[in-house]
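Most newcomers find our protein records easier to grasp once they have seen one. To make this concrete, we reproduce a full record directly below:

===
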Amino acid sequence: MLCQCNCFFITSSFLNFPNHSRYVRRGQPDAGFPLFESESLKWPGFVEFDDVNGRVLTYSAQDSTYKVFDLKNYTLLYLVSDKNVQEIKISPGIMLLIYARTSSSVPLKILSIDDGTVLKSFSHLLHRNKKVDFIEQFNEKLLVKQEGENLQILDVRNFQLTEVSRTEFMTPSAFIFLHELQLFLTFRNRAVSVWNFRGELVTSFEDHLLWHPDCNTNNIYITSDQDLIISYCKADSTDSTSEENAGSINISSILSGKCLAKINTGNSNACKERKKAWKFRNTVSEALEDITALYYDEDRDEIYTGNRHGLVHVWSS
């Protein structure tokens, strides 16, 4: 999750602590504690919370420095200071450092997420004069896509290359890697798809049209078993109970693509809002407008949503 430094961060590690989630439920976000006050993180700097590895990555554009912190106690573990690093990608156990490309290749380094040790350095050949759409790393698999070219999936252990036709795999706006299933999600034009690392389409979703066309991943939650995706979606146009400005919260199976449940203006009795902490009340329709963040507390079986007005709603069955 990428956020600008002036945001109020609500991460799963925050919500999993009973004392912290109690402050959210009471409507007291100021009862939390500030983080990274010593860091200069204004744009294009950023903070990224990584629950899988238990790490936090910060970037200071002022001095071109990346820092890695422990997510448990926010202690600094190590830093990477190199002006030639263009981007860093995090996947389970490792970080991929992407350097400024040459005309025909892009230099890459794979680091241990634990201590920053360099595990492998190599260059990947590119088509000349073609823009790089993305470079992504997941475990031993490197995904590279250039404009108008096929998707390349490179196994960095043996450098075996798999290509997927550009007509089958079009450049998505975002990825989510599913480390438990060895699959990955792609988001493009409000649609979600599931792929494996052989470049094969595994799942298309029947009723999961995202609200935001550019895929705001803050509005998407994947359960810890990676069997469900919960997203803020466009309401079904055939639903006569839906309201124009209100979306829906859809819960779908990742492996089958089936929609298992949804929260919309037509089933407000099934999911209620807890609003005791607020001095004013919203209708269900109002609470389903302009959602900017979504989180599912798996222990309590509750969904938290935040909207552009700064309100947090809790939905429980």
Remarks:
- Residues 1-18, 269-278 have pLDDT under 50 and may be disordered.
